[in-house]
Amino acid sequence: MDKLIIDNNGKATISNDGATIMKLLDVVHPAAKTLVDIAKSQDAEVGDGTTSVVLLAGEFLKQCKPFVEESVHPQVVAKALRKATDLSVRKIKEISEKVKNDNPEEQRSLLKKCAATALSSKMVAHQKDFFANMVVDAVMILDELLPLNMIGMKKCRGGALEDSLLVEGVAFKKTFSYAGFEMQPKKYLNPKIALLNIELELKAEKENAEIRVDNVQEYQSIVDAEWKILYDKLDKIHASGAKAVLSKLPIGDVATQYFADRDMFCAGRVPEEDLKRTMKACGGSIQTTSTNLDADVLGSCELFEERQIGGDRYNFFTGCPQAKTCTIIMRGGAEQFIEETERSLHDAIMIVRRAIKNDAIVAGGGAIEMELSKHLRDYSRTRPIADSCGIMLALMLPTFSTTQTKTYPRC
Question: What are the residue numbers of the active site?
């Protein structure tokens, strides 16, 4: 069940993600803050299972409380927990299934099941097959290191969830543009890409600036010098052979019209994240000057085009040679719904990456918890009654079954 949480600023968040809910809560109790840290650690390390670890830790505390009240030493409780942890980890390794990399079809099937399991408790559970395929495709596009920052997540309001698409390359929303932008070409084959951190417009004078001139010619020389500096930059960019110019800083109307007259595409105020991802994917480097723009600092891709997605226009760079990257464009109605979809896909992506790196999986849906509970119960029956650790193990057994019932009520 999804929760609606409104913070102090009035922002509404609809989520079923444990880490998101714990972050939004105003927790004061020291033990409860520890549970929040557990959820954050689980979200950063694994990406999913945040609700399960909070419930499991809370149930452990609940089961330990009577023993502490009965004057059982905390070291005895900690010893039993460490013993149970060791037995559980051994059992998990024993019954786990290996993900075989030599059979791509079987590997993809297992990864899809892992993604579908992660999405089954989310808001997008009804479309989990559609998104499971998309998540597996996105992760398989990456290189061997599986860098998470090479998967871009873009939100576009409007349309249905099934209208979401996966782009094998870099895609970002069209930035603010001046007059003359519509005259620029919107599609190139094998273009050279210039990545800049330069402001290509006439700068306004500072508030306290003062220039004294004696005649009109001196004033005109100052104006001409400003224009000459700008046009020198534009001429050098054009001479480099670049067909697409991306800049983190603004590109003014004069520069926009200049590039349009020479059949060049430009985009200013590109977000730093998208600019760096384009640099990693297409090659080249971000330049802070217009001098020495040669082939070594220019990027390239097989196809650049601008397409309409819903009510927005997006710039697509596909066929990137330097690094394997992709972008997921999510569609949907309300903004809160799209944000929850992003969180759900992030969890599924983390799980698929983890399955590829660790190549071992176990059954979900509470099955592994029940198996561990049975294993610990059988072990506790083999321990002598005087063994405090054995007694504690037997008394701690309800934790797994109770947590399983709370987390997976339909199992």
Answer: 17, 50-51, 347
